[in-house]
Specification:
about 0% helix; five-stranded antiparallel sheet; Jelly Rolls; mainly beta; four-stranded antiparallel sheet; about 140 residues
Length: about 140
């Protein structure tokens, strides 16, 4: 089994998902398909607001990526456990703008030599001025 997921919540502005992997290695495996979220409209994007992880200490970490023609690194989870976004002043991790050609707004994971548990909270973001898309109610 590669990566399994359990949606904890999916509201009009926030989504939280728990992921488990008992496979030793994954390469560009989907964590989040934004088009499947509540209220999705073409062009809808998310930020990564919070990350919690435990792992069996992967060499090179657990890479969380923005899906694009050439994937863009969002965050690297290092060590056997940790968090991001739970302390004051830690900003959400935004997708690079403008979006790269081929970008879907989806989120992927790559890891080597480790199993892991991830809990990620995503915030749905409105399209910026001059861009199409966003989220419905």
């Amino acid at each position: 089994m590669a990566v399994t997921s359990q949606t904890i919540t999916d509201t009009r502005y926030r989504t939280a998902v728990k992921y488990l992997s008992d496979a030793a290695a994954n390469a560009d495996v989907s964590l989040l398909d934004v088009s499947g979220l509540m209220g999705f409209q073409t062009g809808g994007k998310v930020n990564i607001a919070k990350i919690y992880w435990t792992s069996s200490a992967p060499s090179g970490g657990i890479d969380i990526l923005w899906d694009a023609g050439t994937n863009v690194m969002a965050f690297i989870c290092e060590g056997t456990s940790g968090t991001y976004g739970y302390m004051p002043g830690q900003p959400a991790i935004a997708q690079p703008m403008p979006l790269a050609a081929g970008s879907t707004g989806d989120v992927l994971v790559t890891n080597a030599t480790a199993t892991f548990t991830l809990v990620i909270e995503y915030h749905k973001i409105e399209a910026t001025v001059g861009q199409n898309g966003g989220w419905g109610a």
